[in-house]
Amino acid sequence: MNRILLAEDDSNLGLLLKEYLEAKDYVVELFPDGEAALEGYHQQTFDLCILDVMMPRKDGFAVAREIRAHNQEIPLLFLTARSMKDDVLEGFRIGADDYLTKPFSMEELLFRIEAILRRTRQGGAEQGSPYRLGKYTFESQKQELVCGEVHYKLTTKESELLRLLCDNANQVLERNFALKSIWEDDNYFNARSMDVYITKLRKYLRDEPSVEILNVHGKGFKLIR
Fold first, then answer.
1. Rounded distance, CA 156 to CA 49, Å?
2. Distance, CA of 16 to CA of 119 (rounded, Å)
3. CB 135 within 8 A of CB 147
4. What share of the chain is helix, strand, coil (3-state, %, to 5)?
5. Mean of the pLDDT values across residues 2-13?
6. Beta carbons of 224 and 212 less than 8 angstroms apart
7. What SS3 state is found at 157?
């Protein structure tokens, strides 16, 4: 059974989410604020963290940054009442796997959780040789990009996006295909978040001049190697 860390300061909503997910065979630990969520995270093992953005003591972004500093692999899902685009993008910059804007349906939350965990399982089950990117080696199974002593531990989405680029090296990776393959929806927010991840991948690879991720206007991206 998958274990979920749920950080939600609205006690009524938190209990409702906990009971619903437990009825769907998830084990859920509910925490009322960011500090309590971090304490619980360090004391137990979880498969997924669901973080409300606006919480007392520590907000969801602060909690996510501390979790990411400790673990680059655990999936993060933000719950937010905010509709500002910059807040959504900030979540993806931190390394979020997905977000939901309140109000949302229980069915949509369950769908997002299942999609995240399915991607995580598929990423862990993939077999194959490492990708060579100039002097870098990318191991998609381990979600690692390595060159000598330089070692980047990629998030799930970073790894999935880089794997798609490698699989389509020197060809155009269409934006909509990448969005639907990784985010399962090609809406505006997901498209902007993908741009954030492309920028991060470029920074990882900037010391290798033979490798470049190009924008192909109106179509998508091309990994040159």
1. 14
2. 26
3. yes
4. 45, 25, 30
5. 96
6. yes
7. helix
How many whole angstroms separate alpha carbon 157 and alpha carbon 182? 7
CATH 3.40.50.2300 residue ranges of the chain are 3-124
pLDDT of residue 118: 76
**Whether pLDDT at 196 is above 90:** yes
The pLDDT assigned to 183 comes to 82
Least confidently predicted of 126-130, 198-202, 212-216: 126-130
Q: In this prediction, what percent of the chain has a pLDDT beyond 70? A: 93
Query: Long-range contacts of range 214-218, CB-CB < 8 Å, 24 or more positions apart?
Result: 216/172
**Per the structure block, which two tokens stand in for 24?**
């769907």
CATH code 1.10.10.10 region(s) in the chain: 128-224
Q: Is the dihedral of CA 99, 182, 210, 172 positive or negative?
A: negative
Q: Which two tokens stand for residue 84?
A: 């500002």
CA angle 73, 59, 53 (to 5 degrees): 75
Averaged pLDDT score across all residues of the chain? 88
How is residue 77 written in tokens? 């899902």
Average pLDDT score over residue span 90-100: 83
> In terms of CATH architecture, what is 3-124?
3-Layer(aba) Sandwich (3.40)
Domain 128-224: CATH class, spelled out? mainly alpha
